[in-house]
Write a structure and sequence with these properties.
The protein is of the alpha+beta class. It is 35% helix and 20% strand. The strands form four sheets. It has a seven-stranded antiparallel beta sheet with strand order 15-12-14-13-17-18-16, with helices on both faces. Strands 5-6-10-8-9 form a five-stranded antiparallel beta sheet. Strands 1-2-4-3 form a four-stranded mixed beta sheet, with helices on one face.
Length: 457
């Protein structure tokens, strides 16, 4: 029997796709390699994933896990001759326990759907990646996704309690603890968080939830210089009023979003914009007033306070359009997610501006000032060979700059294929070798998401 014959026996006809697989070739990254897979399968349970992986292992076929393909680093891109395992039909919320404040979901559940289910139970799921309305929990765990509320609540991994993972031989591992504390054995849960499908396929996730937060109040502030915006952000973080959101957009980003979205309310013409929110029960409005005062003290040319959730959602919807707007307006983009210590943000932004000027490129920077994780977006015309080469050079130099400032190549998007060769210097030879030892221990035949995450051995 052939590999495809064995798959056909294990799955229903509508769970196996061998033709017209174009929709499953790649994620939302530009400039990353992708190839036609041998087949795409759509399991509906952990057991079906395990059966499929066992068949692939028997035939030596590489496997590429996919969620919603909303990533920006090529981690979910299909490989030539590989089997793509899509979790798009694994969308059940298996449990939502209000007493223990946990939820267990299948990997294909959308972040937004978990958030809504938690809200209906009087609870709150804090992680909110920019693509939270289309991204999946499994994908978020696989990349350790962050988002706009990280400044107060942390990233996806901070909320993962337990995982169900299908290993490279088809066996099923259940890691972690439902309890808040648990130190029995090695912390394998954290090992799989952020592993981008290279160590196992995440099929179920148990996450911690929090009590429902207070109503948000926010401030939109525009500044004449990026330096003034950064100084105001520093003062906000240093205050006793911890924001739940602290976002930044430079002039290039604001212009692109405004051109892309006619409903945008972002102030055009400013060099730096801050979006600041508080959801602190009982004091969000006074927090917002304090943020507004800080912005004014630091030279803001426009300060608007909104106590209305709909108005805040409208502003944040514009912010979530950042990557789509930059690509639509400028043709194509390489999307960074470097992170540096907050004290190094001025040096990072100044260095990015210098790189853009030297290479004559458009680079817009937005992102999460509150945790030092920003998104320089290197724009280029994919039909311009020299422009593409310049964009690739700029991309690498921004990563080098971030690492030289004590930062990292990726704060939340992951490594995928886009950054593999840029992380070697950051990790160093000893840590790189350790990572490959872990990879080979769990995937000795190197079948799981080959060519992703880890630099060349």
């Amino acid at each position: 029997m052939t590999f495809l014959d064995d798959l056909a026996r294990a799955l229903a006809p509508d769970q196996l796709l061998t033709d017209h697989t174009e929709a499953y070739l790649r994620d939302r990254s530009d400039g990353t390699a992708a190839a036609t897979p041998l087949a795409v399968v759509f399991p509906t349970s952990t057991e079906e994933v395990a059966a499929v992986v066992s068949i692939a292992a028997e035939h030596g076929v590489p496997i590429v896990p996919q969620g919603a393909r909303s990533g920006l680093a090529g981690a979910a891109n299909a490989s030539e001759g590989a089997l793509v395992i899509s979790t798009e039909r694994m969308i059940r919320i298996l449990e939502l326990d209000s007493k223990d404040q946990v939820a267990t979901v299948e990997a294909g559940v959308l972040t937004l759907d978990l958030d809504r289910a938690a809200d209906a139970a009087g609870l709150f799921y804090p992680p909110d990646p920019g693509s939270y309305d289309i991204s999946t929990i499994g994908g978020n765990v696989a990349t350790n996704a962050g988002g706009m509320r990280c400044v107060k609540y942390g990233v996806t991994g901070d909320f993962v309690r337990q995982l169900t993972v299908v290993l490279a031989d088809g066996s099923i591992a259940r890691t972690g603890h439902r309890t808040i504390k648990g130190v029995s054995g090695l912390d394998l849960t954290s090992l799989f968080v952020g592993s981008e499908g290279t160590l196992g396929i995440i099929t179920e996730v148990t996450v911690a939830l929090l009590p429902k937060r207070g109503a948000s109040t926010g401030v939109l502030a525009a500044f004449p210089t990026a330096a003034a915006a950064l100084a105001a952000a520093d003062a906000i973080v240093a205050s006793s009023r911890r924001p739940s959101v602290l976002e930044y957009l430079d002039a290039v980003c604001v212009a692109a979003i405004t051109a892309y979205d006619a409903a945008s309310v972002l102030p055009a013409g400013s060099e730096g914009v801050l979006l600041v929110q508080s959801d602190e029960e009982g004091r969000a409005e006074t927090d917002a007033d304090a943020y507004a005062a800080i912005a004014t003290e630091h030279g803001a040319t426009l300060v608007e306070v909104a106590h209305d959730e709909d108005a805040l959602d409208h502003v944040m919807a514009s912010r979530r359009l950042l990557h789509a707007a930059m690509r639509a307006v400028h043709g194509a983009s390489l999307n960074e997610d470097v992170a540096v210590p907050r004290s190094k943000l001025p040096a990072l932004l100044e260095g990015i501006a210098a790189i853009a000027a030297e290479l004559q490129l458009t680079i817009g920077t937005g992102g999460h000032l509150g945790d030092g994780n920003v998104h320089p977006i290197v724009c280029y015309d994919p039909a311009d060979h020299d422009g593409v080469a310049s964009a690739i050079r700029a991309y690498g130099r921004i990563i080098e700059l971030a690492v030289s400032l004590g930062g990292t190549a990726s704060g939340e998007h992951g490594i995928g294929v886009l950054k593999r060769q840029h992380v070697k210097d950051e990790l160093g030879p000893v840590v790189s070798a350790l990572q490959w030892q872990v990879k080979r221990a769990l995937d000795p035949r190197l079948l799981l998401n080959p060519g992703k995450k880890l630099p060349d051995d």
